[in-house]
Amino acid sequence: MKVKNRMILSIVITLPFLLSACQQDATESESSSSTASKKIILQQNDGAVPNASENSDAQMSSLKPARGRSSATYSSEPIDFIEEENLAEARINITSSDDDLRMEAVYNLTLDDANDLHLLENVLLTDPNPEIREEVVMYLAEGDPASVEPLLIKALNDPHSSVIIAALDWLSVMDIGDKSAVTTKFKQIAATHYDEEVKEAAEMALEMME
């Protein structure tokens, strides 16, 4: 009986201390949790800890391919099928018996293609219509001087004055390679051609090249 009474007395004495210790531990735990929460909030405000939305954005960003990169290589310039069709049609129509078709075909040929230059040369030397031959001269003048200069020099022998004058005008302002040969031809035209208008054009061309 005495032992039992001692145990009860011991429990009664010890209980307040246990309750006090438990309450203190709970307070310290709550304080620690509050402090940790404050630190996280401060770090989020300072940008140190990204929030859930930022983490999601970062993950999505990492999944996106880098701008300007691709797993496949594509041509930067799409094929112009209409232009290709016009070119193919022009190569046929340039030999047509219809003047209008030949005139239109001249400007649809390309000046950087050797075969097209050959077609234009053929028109320049053989087409029966001087207006078309003159159009060829003016179109050739838009090309690379090194490529079109020989053809324009051939146009100086054309039987029609308008074609010769067009060739004189364009050759006089082009960056040609052999100026001495061209000026010699100009002088010959200025001295011997039967058409006074052509002679005057040749003299003006010589002045432009000086």
Automatic annotation (TrEMBL):
Leader peptide range in chain numbering: 1-26
Organism: Methylotuvimicrobium alcaliphilum (strain DSM 19304 / NCIMB 14124 / VKM B-2133 / 20Z) (Methylomicrobium alcaliphilum)
UniProt KW keywords: Signal
Record field: compositional bias (Polar residues): 47-62
A Pfam match: HEAT_2
Record's protein name: HEAT repeat domain-containing protein
Residues covered by region (Disordered): 47-75
InterPro entries noted in UniProt: ARM-like, ARM-type_fold
Keyword Signal: yes
